[in-house]
Amino acid sequence: MEKSPDTHRLPLIVDSRELARTGRALEGGFAVRSLERLASLLSRDEGGLVWRVRGERRQRADGGHDDFLHLDIDGRVAMQCVRCLGEAPVAIHVDRGFRLVGSEAQAAREDTEESEFDVLAGGARFDLGELIEDEAIMALPPIARHENCALPVEAGSPDPGPAAAPSPDEARINPFAALAELKKRDR
């Protein structure tokens, strides 16, 4: 799904039942800055998300049917690295399916951990933009860091290099022993 994001505006309201009934697909993109909740979790609000949603209706053996939405999202955003506090690029990839039901109450009853699909309340005024933003937020890592992150050296201080690493004895100082030593000094 390599495509530059067309900037849609929020809210993006669709008729999810009609989308499922016809099996249509919609695609587009959002600029990160237009997704306020997502942008608030990032180090900058640049970039975008490209998305594609496809509806599907499956017939059941009892003569009824179930409606589904399949959502794909791809994008790259920037979060703050927890080690060096620099900018860390983060890939967002979502590939999820949702079963649509008639009401929020029914969705709450039928959405179980064992279910293959999350259950959502569909309808004529389904907020697809909110779903896309929610899924992008859940795709973010809890913390971001570079794979090979070297902490920056302060300006004017010499690079300590590997020779400055503590000896094994220094590294294993028991903090409670140090506390006991401090208590002895106070007496």
Describe the fold and architecture:
This protein is 25% helix and 31% strand. It has helices at residues 16-22, 36-39, 104-110, 128-139, 168-171, 175-186, and strands spanning 13-14, 25-31, 48-59, 65-80, 87-101, 118-121, 126-127. The protein is built from six helices and seven strands. By secondary structure, the protein is of the alpha+beta class. A five-stranded mixed sheet has the order 2-3-4-5-6. The protein has a two-stranded antiparallel sheet with strand order 1-7.
Strand content: 25-35%
Please count the beta strands (DSSP E, at least 2 residues each): 7
Please count the helical segments.
Answer: 6
Largest sheet: 5 strands, mixed
Structural class: alpha+beta
Helix content: 10-25%
- Widest β-sheet, arrangement of strands: 2-3-4-5-6
Shape: elongated
What is the subunit arrangement here? single chain
Q: What series of H and E elements makes up the topology? A: EHEHEEEHEEHHH
Taking all Cα atoms into account, the compactness measure Rg is 25 Å
> What is the CA–CA distance across the termini?
71 Å
Low-confidence stretches: 1-5, 159-165
Residue-averaged pLDDT, rounded?
83
List strands and helices in order, with pairings:
Layout: E1 13-14, H1 16-22, E2 25-31, H2 36-39, E3 48-59, E4 65-80, E5 87-101, H3 104-110, E6 118-121, E7 126-127, H4 128-139, H5 168-171, H6 175-186
Parallel strand pairs: 5-6
Antiparallel strand pairs: 1-7, 2-3, 3-4, 4-5
Descriptive labels:
187 residues; alpha+beta; 6 helices; two-stranded antiparallel ribbon; elongated
